[in-house]
Amino acid sequence: MLKIQFVDRRQPALWLVDECIALGRHRSNRLVAMEEMVSDFHAEIECEGGRCYLVDLQSVNGTYLNDHRVLERTELKAGDIIRLHTVPLAVLDAADRGEDLSSRVAPPVPWQIQALNEPLKGRAFPLQGKLLVGRDAACDIVVPGSHVSRRHAEFSIRAGAPWVHDLGSSNGTFVNGKRVDEAQLATGDEVRCDALRFRVLGPVSSAKDTEEDDMDRTVFRPAVKVELPVPAPELPVPATPAAVAQPVQQLADEIKPPVEVSARRWLPWTVVAVLLLSLLVLHGLHVF
Predict the structure, then answer these.
(1) Rg (CA), the chain
(2) Residue 233 in 3-state DSSP?
């Protein structure tokens, strides 16, 4: 039977008997690592059929087993060292008697930059102190016969983080395609000095990593496809009584019998007839 233990023994060892054991910074995990670079829910150990498997939960800074980044469900065995970024845990068996575990953990490899193209492709350079790149023979990384400036750029470590500083080069220094005078770097960043490209490797990466391996180990959270809601069809607005009354009244006006119109049309003729009749009566009286 296996158990897991922080190398610094900050917590008691935990026997791997549950089906799922969560590891991370959130207090709801079975093993809690409060370091800032550990994700809230960093990894988990799944146990089934007497075997235990390590699974990374798409952590930001990666889960490592014996200094190899965990990309898929991987079986554990006694003597393995798990890293939650840089926090080490040891996988132990029942025979463990509580000896010092620090001797089992190799010191982490420091920050490095790895050349991605010729003439230095595949070479990794540890970032310790300052690292100068250029054509000058006094530089730490010498690139003869290229368009790189004599003193092109300087890499350095400040407060534990890598930086790059352009030294007034003719063709510029770029980080992830953007020209910079100075920039802080992170694991996976690509730095270009003219045509020479480097990838930044974090302190738990291995110097023997190739460009393809490093690209494979970079874990990104899957993009969430958001489906936009389909607008509901517009329904006709119910007519108000006033809106209904108006066209009804117009229709009534149109079909009203033309009685008044006929009366007005015959009125002048009626007056004329009355006048003529009056004249005839007067004329007859005059005759008699």
Answers:
(1) 45
(2) coil
Buried residues in 117-144 as b, exposed as e (16+ CB within 10 A): eeebeeebbebeeebbbbbeeebebebe
Strands (E), 119-271: 124-126, 130-134, 141-142, 153-158, 161-166, 173-175, 178-180, 182-184, 190-193, 196-201
Phi, psi dihedral angles at 155 (to 5 degrees): -100, 145
CB 104 within 8 A of CB 56: no
Spatial distance between the Cα atoms of 120 and 123, rounded to a whole number of angstroms: 6
pLDDT in tens, 221-234: 333 333 444 555 55
Structure confidence by residue, pLDDT tens digits, 95-119: 776 666 666 665 566 788 988 988 8
pTM score above 0.85: no
C-alpha torsion angle, residues 210, 109, 221, 63 (rounded to 10)? 110
- Name 66's Cβ contacts closer than 8 Å, sequence gap at least 6: 80, 81
Question: Which residues, other chains included, contact 5 with Cβ-Cβ below 8 Å and sequence gap of 6+?
Answer: 11, 12, 13, 14, 89, 90, 92, 96, 101
Plot region of 287 (φ>0 → left; ψ -120 to 50 → alpha; else → beta) = alpha
How many helices, marked H, and strands, marked E, lie in the chain?
3, 22
Phi (first) and psi of residue 274, to 5 degrees: -65, -40
Residue 18 carries which side chain, given as an amino acid letter?
A: D
How many other C-beta atoms lie within 10 A of the C-beta of residue 36? 7
Dihedral of CA atoms 110, 115, 119, 125 in degrees, nearest 10, equals -10
DSSP state of 129: S
8 Å CB contact between 195 and 118: no
